[in-house]
Amino acid sequence: MNDEIQKFIVYLKEVKKTSENTVISYERDLKKFNKYCIEQGISGVNQITATGLNSYVLYLEKQGLKPATISRGIASLKAFFHFLQKEGYVKQDVAEDLKAPKVEKKMPSVLTKEETERLLNETNGTSPKELRDGAMLELLYATGIRVSELISLKLEDINLKMEYITCRDGNKERIVPFGQVAKEKLQMYLSEGRAELVTDESSDYLFTNCSGHAMSRQGFWKLVKYYGKKAGITTELTPHTLRHSFAMHLVSNGADLHSVQEMLGHSDISTTQIYANMNQNRIREVYAKAHPRG
């Protein structure tokens, strides 16, 4: 099955122009499925049945995996078997009727505006690393982009004069504006910090680690945790928290959902709707606490 998996991965990259993160997830899920099949004595894709796939889902559930993780695994299988049938490797798409478990939508963790101010105020240092950290956190909150998009930004993706960045995800691209504070932080970093960090002058990454190489997701995660601790923030804090906070603060200040959807890069407005629901819940809470007849 390894050959078919690799052909599928090439198809995702070269034909579908799927984002790198999605490709990595699909490949990881399918390798795990292949290992399971080998343990069951199954070596070829034509030996896999709908019953066998359901057994695999039960196996994942018995491992105690979260419904969201299982759903992602099922999505990988459905995409893979659709490809196999389309390309003639199998006669029937045995994953067509595979059902994903219901995933309870968890309200995302967001920072209050006061917590956000405290966090960002902790990044006012003047060393090259501190200038980089301040620019990264400020830009993340100013634009709401994904961490993968932030660490993948190139110098050419930043337009300081017009105050916007260009984000690329596979074959898709979107323009996201940022404000004056983020602009000032970026200018300081580019003029006084970046040259001290980038050892390879040919590097076109906007942000690098202290060795001058592209920053990893794990490296940025540690950075966020460090400044969160310094700011005394007890709310669960991850890089994605700033993306959620960006969206929530925009919606609570009256931004329309379609504009927020476009900036976040959501393909479906229902994904963005969660921030409106959160805002309505907070309004109800304020009303219940403050109104005499609440």
Keywords:
294 residues, mainly alpha, DNA polymerase, domain 1, hpI Integrase, Chain A, 2 domains, 3-stranded antiparallel β-sheet, 13 helices, 59% helix, globular
Molecular structure report:
- It is built from 13 helices and three strands, in the order αααααααβββαααααα.
- β2 (164-169) and β3 (172-177) form a beta hairpin.
- It has two domains: 2-86, Tyrosine recombinase, N-terminal domain (DNA polymerase, domain 1, Orthogonal Bundle), CATH 1.10.150.130; 113-288, Intergrase catalytic core (hpI Integrase, Chain A, Orthogonal Bundle), CATH 1.10.443.10.
- The N and C termini lie far apart (62 Å).
- Strands 1-2-3 form a three-stranded antiparallel β-sheet, with helices on one face.
- The protein is mainly alpha-helical.
- α12 packs across α13 (269-290).
What is the end-to-end distance? Answer: 62 Å
Our Rg estimate from Cα atoms comes to 23 Å
Name given to the CATH homologous superfamily of the largest domain = Intergrase catalytic core
Strand content: under 5%
Helix percent band: 55-70%
CATH topology of the largest domain: hpI Integrase, Chain A
Short structural summary:
The chain is mainly alpha-helical. The chain has two domains: 2-86, Tyrosine recombinase, N-terminal domain (DNA polymerase, domain 1), CATH 1.10.150.130; 113-288, Intergrase catalytic core (hpI Integrase, Chain A, Orthogonal Bundle).
Strand and helix layout:
Elements: H1 2-14, H2 20-39, H3 50-62, H4 67-86, H5 113-121, H6 128-143, H7 147-152, E1 158-159, E2 164-169, E3 172-177, H8 180-192, H9 194-197, H10 217-230, H11 239-252, H12 257-264, H13 269-290
Antiparallel strand pairs: 1-2, 2-3
